[in-house]
Hints:
It contains 4 helices and 2 strands; from the N terminus they run βααααβ. The protein has helices at about 15-25, 35-50, 60-65, 70-75, and strands at about 15, 85. α2 (about 35-50) packs across α3.
Amino acid sequence: MTFRPKFANSNFKKISLDNFLKKYSKDNPGMDSKQLRKDLINFRQLKNDGVKCNCGNDLWIIGSAISGKGCFSCITMSADCSDDFEIE
């Protein structure tokens, strides 16, 4: 069964790719920031190309780059993304 949110994932806090990488690297010092950058760019392109999550919702770029392809709701099992970031 796939979880589908009631609302579109449009309430993200927008962040630039570089600012997200700085913030994430600071909070996760062991992370391979070069690979994360590649993954973020890849999932941003996939989203721009219209690729969707298996449930039909838009991809969450940040979540997909960290945990695998998916939308916010499928990755977190939550519909409220108002406290989370998305690459602008």
